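Support request from a user on the community tier.

User writes: "When I paste my structure tokens into the form, the page sometimes reloads and wipes my input. The last time it worked, I copied everything first. Here is what I submitted, just in case something in the input itself triggers the reload:"
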């Protein structure tokens, strides 16, 4: 039976929240199309938009409820402000969170500091997506993460070795992130899912389809595509500035991201049937 999408209210008062909402639940509709739009970013529980670049909790909640079940183990190897881990805890899933930036880890731990007696309290520590040595093969039920988009938002000043948010060169970024993709494939159980929210950028006056380079690497490393969901962007901090530049430089503002949902095939699965069966209809 499909779980209902109930959103807990802001019942845990934290210093980074502007107040407390005593409305204990909010029902929303399950996303059923390939275009998602959340003009009003969810701020229930300890969610907030103060960590720049973090994704809307509606994304994490829909993915978790769609592709996992209670008591499953969820991994976010680039947890940032902790959005997916908060949702995992609220939805009664076990979870692991890593981030290469100690500041992000501290913020995430603070935001997870509610209902301490909960047996689903996430385990969070500093770690690199390329080296998930502490995680056993085929032990994760769902992966959900939101990596940097090259150096659009820098989360450190170059002092953290391996920080993807400090890489401006596309080839270098893809090469390093590919190491992480191999690790994600290794730790994920067969017939389970990996969801990644990734966007594109512009450099030198041209469009850089970062998301598609990332998608290609996932496919080349054994994953198969389940969904390509377009997530509309709202309230971008830089939009007002760039709106003034649209006519001057003759371009379109990028106002969407891709939520790719990949599946790790089962052992001995017939991948030719999955990848090429649609060609038989041509």
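"...and here is what came back when it finally went through:"
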């Amino acid at each position: 039976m499909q779980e209902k999408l109930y959103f807990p209210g802001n019942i845990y008062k934290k210093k980074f929240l502007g107040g407390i909402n005593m409305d204990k639940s909010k029902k929303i509709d399950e996303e059923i199309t390939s275009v998602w739009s959340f003009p009003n970013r969810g701020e229930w529980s300890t969610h907030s938009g103060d960590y720049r670049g973090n994704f809307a909790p509606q994304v994490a909640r829909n993915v978790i409820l769609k592709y996992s079940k209670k008591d499953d183990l969820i991994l976010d190897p680039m947890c940032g402000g902790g959005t997916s881990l908060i949702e995992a805890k609220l939805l009664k899933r076990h979870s692991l969170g890593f981030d290469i930036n100690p500041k992000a880890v501290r913020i995430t731990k603070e935001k997870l500091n509610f209902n301490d007696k909960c047996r689903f309290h996430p385990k969070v520590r500093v770690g690199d997506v390329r080296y998930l040595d502490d995680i056993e093969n085929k032990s994760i039920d769902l992966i959900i993460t939101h990596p940097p988009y090259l150096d659009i938002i820098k989360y450190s000043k170059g002092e953290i070795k391996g920080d993807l948010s400090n890489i401006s060169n596309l080839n270098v970024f893809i090469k390093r992130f590919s190491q992480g993709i191999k690790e994600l494939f290794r730790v994920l159980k067969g017939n389970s899912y990996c969801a990644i929210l990734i966007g594109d950028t512009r450099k030198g006056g041209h469009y850089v389809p970062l998301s598609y380079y990332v998608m290609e690497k996932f496919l080349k490393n054994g994953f198969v595509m389940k969904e390509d969901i377009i997530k509309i962007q709202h309230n971008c901090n830089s939009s007002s500035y760039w709106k003034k530049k649209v006519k001057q430089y003759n371009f379109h503002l990028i106002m969407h991201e891709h939520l790719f949902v990949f599946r790790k095939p089962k052992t001995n699965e017939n991948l030719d049937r999955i990848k090429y069966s649609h060609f038989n209809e041509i």
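Agent notes: The reload is a front-end session timeout and is unrelated to the input. The radius of gyration is 19 Å. The chain has one domain: 33-281. Escalated to web team.
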